[in-house]
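[audit] Reproducing an earlier prediction to check determinism. Same input, same settings, fresh worker. If the tokens differ from the archived copy the diff job will pick it up downstream; this log only records the rerun itself.
[audit] input (187 residues):
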Amino acid sequence: MKFITQFALAGTILLLCGPILPAASQTAATAKTQLKDSKGKDVGAADFTQTPAGVLIKLSLKGLPAGDHAFHIHTVGKCEPPSFESAGGHFNPGQAHHGMLAGEGHAGDMPNLHVPANGALAVEVLNDKITLDKGKPNSLFDNDGSSLVIHAKADDYKTDPAGNAGDRLACGVIGASSSTVGGPQPR
């Protein structure tokens, strides 16, 4: 009986501690950006997390015009107002045609945002064509960085190279950070 109790106790400890030990050693690349409009006003933020399926983008917006807006990853990590043309074109390391309705689309393509009347929106999008891992051809952290841009109009998902998305309303340079996933939490 004593053996069974000790065995059960050891099994319980393993069950309780088992998931903690591997998770503490897992790290995921992360990145962030603050989005500013053409006047420098803060209009939102995005958090990027590398996952086995791609990069999860958690976007939180405020004060944008209601309606449909394209948002894309752009090829240069520079956001000079008022036009944000400094962000370059869409992130497209594979030189693919733009638009999900025209084929595979390129790495910077993402679905339109539907901003409600109050101008606030929180959404999560997975992009399986990009990575936060440095040194890979589809990494957001290449020599000139990358940025996240929100456009004035919806993306038509077919017109190359930019989907007829219109002017650039907001821009944010994507910056690297690092975090531990599932590990010990700060006290």
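[audit] rerun output stored. Observation attached for the diff report: Residues 1-25, 178-187 have pLDDT under 50 and may be disordered.
[audit] end
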